[in-house]
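[retry 2/3] N-acetyltransferase domain-containing protein: previous attempt timed out, resubmitting with same input.
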Amino acid sequence: MLKKLTKEQLHKKFKQLFNSIVGVDEQQQAALAMKAYQVNINEVKYYVGRAQVSDIDEILDIERAVYDGATPWNKQAFTSELHRKHDRLYLVIRKNDQLLAFIGSSYSRATQDMHITNVAVLPAWQRRGIGSFLLNVIIDKARQINAQQVSLEVRVSNTQAQRVYHELGFESQGISAGYYFGDHEDALKMALIFNEEEK
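[retry 2/3] N-acetyltransferase domain-containing protein: success.
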């Protein structure tokens, strides 16, 4: 005779089945789910939280401010990314309800790579440790889910960003020729590779 399951048990079984099909594990879900909190960066208080669809217009404003009026990613691309909560982590930083910075990342279980898709800070708020803080949050999350590395691309002309990445332990991994849409500038591929002791 079959055992009758409660609604909660059925939900748990369905969730386990779904996660096994999609390729999500509980540890990864717990690491990528995060609640908003306040943080002190260089003695200034900010609010950090997971990016929401309602943040996209402000995220695009940051892109325009950083990339001379251009938006490398459009609203549709960000919407698609933010709906993928099982393998994407996008964070925003606010002060006095103004969105100052954001970072995006995607995780591949197949390659065990946490890839930083984009990071940008409003020009007036750069050089205050905000970008480094966001990068360190993603690095910590990557360690929590036992990623092998954190990777990213950066314009070859953006030596300031490259310096920050080097300070955080990223190393050059070669060049992607003509990587960037529009001007076809080359990208420097960089990665922070964890050794076993760092995980």
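[retry 2/3] N-acetyltransferase domain-containing protein: Residues 27-198 form a domain with the Aminopeptidase fold (CATH 3.40.630.30).
[retry 2/3] clearing retry counter.
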